[in-house]
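Protocol check, entry for the methods section draft. Step 1: assemble the input record (protein sequence plus ligand SMILES). Step 2: submit for complex structure prediction. Step 3: store the structure tokens unaltered in the notebook. Ligand used here: flavin mononucleotide. Step 1 record:
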Amino acid sequence: MNDNQQPKLNKPGLILWASRTGRTLQVCQTVEQVLTEAGIAVEMISAAEYQEDPRDRPFLITASPTYGVGDLHPLWDRLEREWRQWDFKGLPAAALGCGSSRYPVPCGAVEILETRLRNQGAKILLPALKVDTLTGLDLTLAEAWAHKFIQALGIL
Ligand SMILES: Cc1cc2nc3c(=O)[nH]c(=O)nc-3n(C[C@H](O)[C@H](O)[C@H](O)COP(=O)(O)O)c2cc1C
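Step 3, stored output:
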């Protein structure tokens, strides 16, 4: 087993996020709250500001709403490009984000993030959370997903 397959407990888990109108941010804050209440240290950082190496974290959650035609929030573009050269082997990870089913590619950005994580060798812990905000934002979906995330972390 190499270094990046070992659980890393010295730093908090990471939620990297972008959001234009605040919905994906609220979903991330809900996930953060559930994890924190369960005693799991977690830190939320804007994808635009993040310059570090996520491989020294115990887990990585990536979050983007979908804009354009099934695209990432533009503040994700730099990291998503940089990560194409990286090996995330074994890094526990998951993706989430808001979108709307009125568009032809619902939550396409979440799939882009999940595919990037998977292609770089991350261990996808559970199916991505795609929150359809067509009729409003249901944060109970985020709570339920966060509990499943905790379960998946526990069985690593
Ligand atoms: C110009 C525009 C394009 C959008 N394109 C998509 C899309 O392709 N797929 C999708 O699922 N949602 C699309 N959406 C909907 C947003 O993703 C949705 O409103 C989401 O809740 C925004 O999240 P945020 O508050 O985190 O920015 C689009 C919204 C706008 C304004």
